Amino acid sequence: MIVEEYNQAVPGKKKKFYQVLYIQVLMAIIVGVLLGYFYPSLGEQMKPLGDGFIGLIKMIIAPVIFITITVGIASMSDMKKVGRVAGKAFIYFLTFSTLALILGLIVSNIVQPGKGLNIDPSTLKASSISQYVNKAHDSSLINFIFEIIPKTLVSPLTGDNILQVLLIAILFGIAISLTMPKSKLVLDFMEALAHPVFKIVSILMKLAPIGAFGAIAFTIGKYGIESIGNLLALVITFYTTSLFFVIVVLGAVAKYNGFSIFKFLKYIKDELLLVLGTSSSEAALPALMQKMEKAGCAKSIVGLVVPTGYSFNLDGTNIYMTLAALFIAQACNIHLPLSSQIVLLLVAMLSSKGAAGVSGAGFITLAATLAVVPEVPIAGMTLILGIDRFMSECRALTNMTGNAVATVVVARWEGQLDKEKLHAALNAK
Question: Which residue of 140, 344, 389, 393 sits 20 to 30 Å from the alpha carbon of 171, by its own alpha carbon?
Answer without folding.
Answer: 140
